[in-house]
Specification:
Blueprint lengths: L3 E8 L5 H14 L5 E8 L5 E3 L21 E2 L1 E3 L2 E4 L2 E2 L4 E4 L10 H9 L8 H8 L1 H10 L3 E2 L2 E4 L14 E5 L9 E3 L5 H9 L5 E5 L3 E11 L2 E4 L3 E5 L8 H6 L3 E4 L8 H15 L5 E9 L4 E7 L9 H7 L5 H14 L7
Parallel strand pairs: 1-2, 1-8, 9-19
Antiparallel strand pairs: 2-3, 3-4, 5-6, 6-7, 10-13, 11-12, 11-13, 14-15, 14-16, 14-18, 16-17, 18-19
Amino acid sequence: MSKVRVGIICGGKSSEHEISCVSANGILGAIDRNKFEPVLIGITKSGKWLLLPADTSFIIQNGALPVVPESGVEISVTSQGLFSGGKNLAIDVAFPILHGPYGEDGTIQGLFEMIGQRYVGSGVLACAVSMDKSYAKPIFASAGLNVAAGTVVTSSKFELPSSLKYPLFVKPARSGSSRGTTKVKAATELTAAVEHALTFDTKVIIEQAIIGKEIECAVLQADGKLSTSPVGEIVISDKYEFYDFQAKYLDNSMQLVSPAILPAGIEEKIQKAALLAFSAVGCEGLARIDFFYSSDNQIIINEINTMPGFTPTSVYPKLIEKTGISYQQLITKLIETAQKLSINVTR
């Protein structure tokens, strides 16, 4: 039986280019090569699609993050599939391990839909609304989930609603990995924080900071059913105000405590809320759902990541591992789910 050819697509034009490369490195190292033949495809920061050597290594070296080189063997995307050097790459399933804009926002998913390419993860609409927090929050609220109070602004000239009290979080509506996010403790810091966020996105959310635990739950669609992981708490070093890019990726200052230490019955409520959020936006395949468990005992949804960080030590695979599914088995299950999902019909 011939192996399934899996196009692992990484890099991209977003600010999370480097983290995508690290995630791809993890998949390349762990994918079951008895079942799958990986084809590594890199999208450069300028947007070129390149066929990369199978032995490419994307690792963090001396604090330097890996990137897709700007030159190489180009790939063309056609209605017949992905071609390189006049030859069809014959990709059976695409695994777009792309984070942020152009990868996690429905755009590449739309491209796959147009050319009839099967792919891992959620469809166009679920990706688009999950990526844009200003659209995701009303969907969560209408499904009966608690969301943090906030407002959306598009310039540094705005009036802050009187209901919002410091501290606040200011974040780009459509950025990930906490890029462009600032914790604001006083009115004198607010304008600068909004201007900083506007360098990442044209739309910015100002949101009430929630005092409490940061809780994450992984959802997996596999073997014809949806399942949730035990929930985990993100505990960061005291030197960080919040779980930002540096804390996430560069200095090992984050600890995942799983199962999280919560009052009786709360974990089950968070797991139910995660499934509700997954279904409310129409996710498929996988998602990591982030919550706060507030000091006044409220479960508040923060966001959905439709293509969460995917290195072997990332939160999503670590949480799924708690259910007895290894990193390699997780990769296999996601590809097999993608093979069963219909394209150009229900998505």
